[in-house]
Amino acid sequence: MVCLRVVAILAAVLFSVVTAHAAPPKRIVSFNLCGDQLAVALADPEQIVALSPYATDPAVSVVADQAKRFPQLDWRAEGTLTLNPDLVLVGTDDRGTTQRMLRRFGVPNYEVQLVTDLDAARRQIVEFAALVGHPERGTTLVAALDAAERKLAVAPRPPFRTALIVERNGYTQGSNSLVAALVAKAGLHPPPGAPGGYGGYMPLERILMLKPDVLVLRDPPRAVTDQGALTLLHPAVQALYPPARQIALPTRLSFCGGPALVAALDYLADEMTRLAR
Predict the structure, then answer these.
(1) Which end of the chain is more exposed for a tag (fewer CB within 10 A), N or C?
(2) Nearest Cα to Cα of residue 182 among 274, 124, 255
(3) What is the pLDDT along the chain (277 residues), one digit of tens a residue?
(4) How far is CA 66 from the centre of its chain?
């Protein structure tokens, strides 16, 4: 865990570097879901001109309600230019053509990286808070993240040690993912033979052969509506992994860094308490 004092020092240093080169942005536009959430959490509302259409989707955004006050982008670079932004938030692989056009017109871009562990998430929070001129908010959010991690660390532990993180169609998250880092904080690690790296698709038979103690199902469907849903709701899965051996983890809590992680850690603390009963 990153020491809060170190985070505060880093925030101050980054803020001094940012302010030495440019004033904080006054017209932020976000093309990126994770950027949406960082902006809503750390910038002033008056600094935000528009967010991506994902920002108000409660299935993927933890700031869906707050984001409703802001206009939504239409995804076109031309439309973005009419907003006269002085900072555009983009993902590493988001809309390359749009990014190039914005750069040609001299519009600064900030790439919002997909973080894969909590320390990287802390660094991103501190950096972004400094960028938008509010380093103290970054320090506060990191402190909330630290507190949520401590709460999970002392939550009751069930007699389980291994878990597989499975999505629709049998996609299984590997150890180099944010959701795996979160689940590891709950004391659950992949069983031997589980996919490494960022993960990959596995047939249902292979998933069951690995015999994880727990299945972490990301946004499990309520009914079998297609083949992808069948993997998660197959009778064999339900028989071997009843609710007492399942964690249903919402994607909105485990895709982005920023404020989502506080809610994710709190959610896992509650789930570990439930499984320990």
Answers:
(1) C
(2) 255
(3) 545 554 454 444 444 444 444 799 999 999 999 999 999 999 999 999 999 999 999 999 999 999 999 999 987 767 788 899 999 999 887 766 777 777 888 889 999 999 999 999 999 999 999 999 999 999 999 999 999 999 999 999 999 999 999 998 889 999 999 999 999 999 999 999 999 898 999 999 999 999 999 999 999 888 888 877 888 889 999 999 999 999 999 999 999 999 999 999 999 999 999 999 9
(4) 17
* Domain-embedded: residue 155: no
The SS3 of residue 153 is helix
- DSSP for 188-229, please give it: -BPPTT---TTEEE--HHHHHHT--SEEEEES--SS--SHHH
Question: Are both 8 and 81 inside the same structural domain?
Answer: yes
Residues facing 90 on adjacent strands = 111
Return the half-sphere exposure (C-beta side, CA atoms, 13 A cut-off) of residue 204. 16
The boundaries of the domain holding residue 268 are 163-276
